[in-house]
Amino acid sequence: MLALSVALATGCAGREGVDSINEDGEARSSTPPTSAKPNAPSDPGPQRAQVPAGAVIPSDFALAEGWPGPGEDEGGPNGLEGPSRKLPPLTLTACGTTIFVPNGSDRLSAVWTNPEDHRSRMLLTFGSAVTAREYAASVTDLYRSCPTQDTGDGYTTLAEVVTTDLTEDSAAVVLHYLMGTEPAVGLGLVQVVRSGTAVLVETGSNEGGSGSRPEEQRRQYLRESTAALHDVVDAMSAFGSTANRNDRAAAGLPSWSPAAPEGPDGAPLELGNIVLGGIEPVEVGRQVSGYIRQGYLVADQDPPCEGNDWLWRGELSDGLYVSADQDGTISALGTDEDGLETADGIGVGSSHRALMATYGELLAQVRADDQGVGWVFVKEGADWIAFSLGPVEQVTDTSRVDFIEVGRGEVLHHFSDAC
Questions:
Q1: Residue 115: its pLDDT value, please?
Q2: 115 to 147, 215, 227: CA distances (angstroms)
Q3: Which CATH class is domain 251-408?
């Protein structure tokens, strides 16, 4: 079986590979020794002094929401433990590779147990959304790299990574087992959900997985687990988009809500998030003509400069901008209104401090354009998002974004003057 090496879970259901905890708080493996690194370093626990104030998890955070309530377990050692920082962290292991909780993160954990039903949750917060994203990706990458594992006792563990709809950055790992070629008893599940600077990891195991409809049992287990997480995930927004929206609201800018233009079929055209290289669904590098046909853009009948020029259609042109090459290829998009935002809630009005907390080391240092305006940007591959913070000599942590531009290739500022 594929060992989860989950330090919070107690007991064993089927072949989920969840370790138990002895009275000293040490993990005791219930899996073959080949499933985990024998000399892996111990987890150092959260380094609270390194956690930014905004990333500290409240002690009363409702981490156990969605789990069975009091009286729904069989008593004795069963039931809820936590939420608490004193519970040991989850460490996940597959194919000999173990992922520990990084230093500099805050952590809150909870466990619910019953015969043949074991559940653990660990909420982590990080200094930036980038670090949180990297940790979440490391968990899913662990299982993607180890879809099958033979344990040497006739059992094979199968791991399937699927995306979920809890956030824009959430996934689940469904674990099931074979004895020879037949489904064996035992289901396991690892949910990974990132929201802003927070990551939730939930593990679970039960006695399902065999019988005449094993695939339906796996789907049902995933559906029920995902549904039980909604309230916790909603509360996690305090560490992501909600925090960044509150930061923007402090700027006191009027909210911009332009009427949506209609598409060729008469239905309103909706805009999505500001993303690297685009304002969804419009992307830098594509032809203007395609978006004119869709109804997002129009030709400018009175361009400020020689040559062709284009505008966003209708009221969108009051706060959105487009620049394109002479052949009609979009080179940049921009906005100076507090209306659109990134998936993490960053938009016009966001503070420099919020940008640093969200993007961490990916955020470039402030640099001046030809007009003396200070800009910072985030770039992944060829695509980028740049944020104007006002006169460069006046930029501080409290400076506010007054223009957002997205592009591809070299970071240039296409909207600095009329042409």
A1: 87
A2: 28, 23, 22
A3: mainly beta
How far is it, in rounded angstroms, from Cα 73 to Cα 67? 11
Angle at 101 between CA 115 and CA 39, to 5 degrees: 85
20-239 sits in which CATH class?
alpha beta
What is the DSSP-derived secondary structure letter of residue 262?
B
Q: How many Cα atoms are found within 13 Å in the side-chain-facing hemisphere of 164?
A: 27
Question: Which range among 42-56, 192-206, 334-348, 364-378 shows the weakest confidence by mean pLDDT?
Answer: 42-56
248-272 burial, b at 16+ Cβ within 10 Å, e below that, comes to beeeebeebebebbeeeeeeebebe
User: Which ranges in the chain are annotated with CATH 3.40.1000?
Assistant: 20-239
Angle at 108 (CA atoms; ends 190, 35), nearest 5 degrees: 40
Q: Could you give the CA distance from residue 311 to residue 326 in angstroms, rounded to a whole number? A: 14
Of residues 35, 8, 19, 10, the one with CA closest to residue 157: 35
Separation between Cα atoms, residue 137 and residue 19, nearest integer Å: 23
Q: How far is CA 202 from CA 137, 290, 393, in A?
A: 15, 43, 46
In 229-316, alpha helices (H): 230-236, 241-249, 288-294
Q: Give the rounded percent of residues in the chain with a pLDDT score beyond 70.
A: 84
- Mean pLDDT value across the chain: 83
Q: Which residues of the chain does CATH 2.60.460 include?
A: 251-408
Determine phi and psi for 264, rounding to 5 degrees: -60, -30
Confidence of residue 290 (pLDDT cuts 50, 70, 90): very high
User: Residue written as tokens 């600077």?
Assistant: 197
